[in-house]
């Protein structure tokens, strides 16, 4: 693979700022000079005063760097880290990689009786729904087993027993986006938010307690229902909060009489126990009795009674990248470690990730990556390295699947537009920019591809850190739109840089986070 650097890129990176070219006396800037004028104008926004604003724009066809500011300065990438993880996973595992889940036993079967334990053995599949466990139970019943004289044991030893990533905030633990990572888990929806359960709050009669149910039904969390049913003309006001380190989920607030159920998510404390519980209920529904559940490692000579394979990685990329699913990223890190090093841990997986990124022209010596999703504030990357990855990935055989899985600006279909579905609509960037978003408190990022007005495909990376107040993601959009309008040698300064107003969600003061400062995936509105 040709590793793209370019003399201009190296010079601009060394300077750590945009490359300034002086036009002849009396001449208006044109071409790249005009683009630099406008991008400098965007980045002069006072909201970026005192903050880090790293930006790189390059033309892969010529290796020319059209713009560079703070290119080599490290910053927290937030979910732009998923670009690193997904590309490395495609290299290490391949686009056809599938997760497998087995139901096995070493016990002898005498008629309908299984003399021994039943094992549910997983390899990290984040796409397992309750319906999939129903189908596994149906296969077990079809084998003739009706009575298991032993227990159902969850075998999650494909991965280590560390459920949460390095540097994750303790107060994120109850939320769906920080769910525990395990070789066995359950997703409550087709977004595949594994390790979470859906909390559904339904109104009853005004003045009475509302009804709270979990989907799928499970006993691994206990609901403390403190809700009421309010007057029919009101608005729902419900808070769902799992105790830190515990299994109690406290549901407070009210829902109006006659309204649709209110839904929110909670993470579970033990994803493997959750999977075993859901599967045990499915077995009972299919007439298979067991003597309880627990944990255990399946014997090497165990035979399979049922099994399931996930969709291939190239398909999983869509919900993973479009909806910025943190759990998918972390599972892929551990899967890389298990497949390449025989150890399903973050440390082993990140070794593989680093090795594969190096093969993609990324210099791991200038990065720090401690998880796969970017949820950790300890992650540090540079716009330069993100741009190099985007550039070099274009030569890989899996590139089209990766490119198509990135969010597309201004496209309403959530499995196309993803986290960009409400951004840059009605501009030259709509249905043009394919890019990965990212956000944490004080962090916003956008890196990807855009086709300029002259037909050239450009790669860009924008990483803002340490800003105060509201997120300046509209400045990211303005940069992407200006790139979509870029006309090469014929380009002229716009004279007025358009900073778009995206349709954003509003902060709910009843929650401990500021939703308006985060991308839509954090609060399930995209």
Provide a descriptive summary of the structure in words.
By secondary structure, the chain is α+β, with helices and mostly antiparallel strands. The chain contains twelve helices and 19 strands. The strands form five sheets. The chain has a five-stranded antiparallel β-sheet with strand order 2-1-19-18-17, with helices on both faces. Strands 15-8-6-3-16 form a five-stranded mixed β-sheet, with helices on one face. The protein has a three-stranded mixed β-sheet with strand order 4-5-7, with no helix packed on it. Helix 3 packs parallel to helix 7, helix 6 packs parallel to helix 10 and helix 7 crosses helix 8. The N terminus is likely disordered.
- CATH architecture assignment name of the largest domain: 3-Layer(aba) Sandwich
Q: Find the count of extended strands (DSSP E, 2+ residues).
A: 19
Distance between the termini: 37 Å
Proportion of residues in extended strands: 15-25%
The CATH top-level class label of the largest domain:
Alpha Beta
Ranges where pLDDT stays below 50 over 5 or more residues in a row are 1-25
Average pLDDT works out at 91
| Computed CA radius of gyration, to the nearest angstrom | 25 Å
**CATH fold description of the largest domain:** Beta-lactamase
How many structural domains?
3
- What's the helix count? 12
Structural class: alpha+beta
Q: How much helicity do the residues have?
A: 25-40%
Family: Belongs to the peptidase S13 family.
Signal peptide: 1-22
Protein name: D-alanyl-D-alanine carboxypeptidase/D-alanyl-D-alanine-endopeptidase
Pfam families: Peptidase_S13 (PF02113)
